[in-house]
Amino acid sequence: MPATTRVDPLSYLTDQLNELKDKGTYFHLRVLDDEQAPVCTFDGKKVINLASNNYLGLTTHPKLREAALEATRKYGVGSGAVRTIAGTMKIHMQLEEKIARFKDVEACVVFQSGFAANAGTVSAVLGKDDFIISDKLNHASIIDGARLSRAKILVFEHKDIGDAESKLASIKDQPGKKLLISDGVFSMDGDIGPLPALCDLAEKYGAIMMVDDAHASGVLGRNGRGTIDHFKVHGRVDIQVGTLSKAIGALGGYVCGSRDLIEFLYHRARPFLFSTSHPPSVAATCIAAFEVLEQEPGRIDKLWENTRFWKKELGLLGFDIGGKTTPASETPITPIIIGDGKLTMDFSRELFKEGVMGTGIAFPTVPEGKARIRTIMTATHAREELDEALATLKKVGKRMGILN
Ligand SMILES: *Cc1c(COP(=O)(O)O)cnc(C)c1O
């Protein structure tokens, strides 16, 4: 049969894309021409960047750059194997020891990403007779890990301790293991998980306590040690996950906990066993980043100073920055809640034309009717850049009827 008459078996995907186009939530990837920085060039246009997770500006820090180059010169560009075969380099071990000391835990294992850390860990520590009790707004990688584990998933209302307790109580006589899990900082709303109360519940019901601190690492706690340090619940969280891809500025994820937890993950976490480890440059970059966290605490102070200014000014302009129909942000993540998905995407596009990069986020990443522009402050935004971004948000917001 000639190729031209073959029916495309993937044509249903085209249909689904057309549906997105009709709804107005179809997007093109914006392409960054230069560095990930507060002012940078996407698709040939210079914009003030409010969309990155580069909290501390480490993506372009000279010490990190130099560390990556030096490691490449010394050790080459790749590790050549998965960790358990031949791909564990000394620099991988050094990074893990560095993180374990920073977090004051027995041991740490690094994964290729935060996503792999969550999905790989949850699916390794639980099995089909077990239970995972998970906040409704937890990250997708936790949900995927839970699905892979085949454990029963009990979702509690966002930060609702009463609901979490009733879920735990409903299975208290079941023999399976229970894993209580929350994000430390919720990525779409910027609110902080209620760790002390969750730890109380985990202790009361004999559950394993796990926290995903992707957006808290480098942001909250002493020198950016995360929510466990912020709430002083040291020793009460059995499994701490963090990312090396956000404030740390490079790529990767890690799990911190007891020596045996980490040894177990060496033997059973599938991304660890079946996917190649980081290039030495990435490990070296991350080691340098943790040094910067300890040596340059002023970056975190500046991040919070910018965050306070930004939230105050955005609120004064009259935007809904959360706290009404959505959780109130307590961190550098500040959503501008618009509601309608299409209006949000149009707003984002108009802002871009005027020189502000704020990514629109709609269903399914956030609930239907809660679409938003998610802005994220960094330590490296200058006051003049923020003033200019605010003026643009005001102008475009008024023009589009989002502001009165
Ligand atoms: C970003 C994020 C992850 C994934 O981290 P990556 O290193 O980007 O894979 C996991 N959990 C949460 C809460 C996140 O926000």
Write up this protein.
By secondary structure, this protein is α/β, with parallel strands linked by helices. Helix content is 42%, strand content 16%. It is built from 14 helices and 13 strands. Helix 3 runs parallel beside helix 11, helix 4 packs parallel to helix 5 and helix 12 (298-317) runs parallel beside helix 14 (383-399). The radius of gyration is 22 Å and the shape is globular. The model has no long low-confidence stretch (mean pLDDT 96). The protein binds pyridoxal-5'-phosphate.
Strands, helices and their partners?
Elements: H1 11-23, E1 39-42, E2 45-49, H2 62-75, H3 90-103, E3 107-111, H4 114-125, E4 131-135, H5 140-149, E5 152-156, H6 161-170, E6 178-183, H7 195-205, E7 208-212, H8 227-230, E8 239-243, E9 253-257, H9 259-268, H10 270-274, H11 280-295, H12 298-317, E10 333-339, H13 341-353, E11 356-357, E12 359-361, E13 371-376, H14 383-399
Parallel strand pairs: 2-11, 4-5, 4-6, 6-7, 7-8
Antiparallel strand pairs: 1-2, 3-9, 8-9, 10-13, 12-13
Bound molecules: pyridoxal-5'-phosphate.
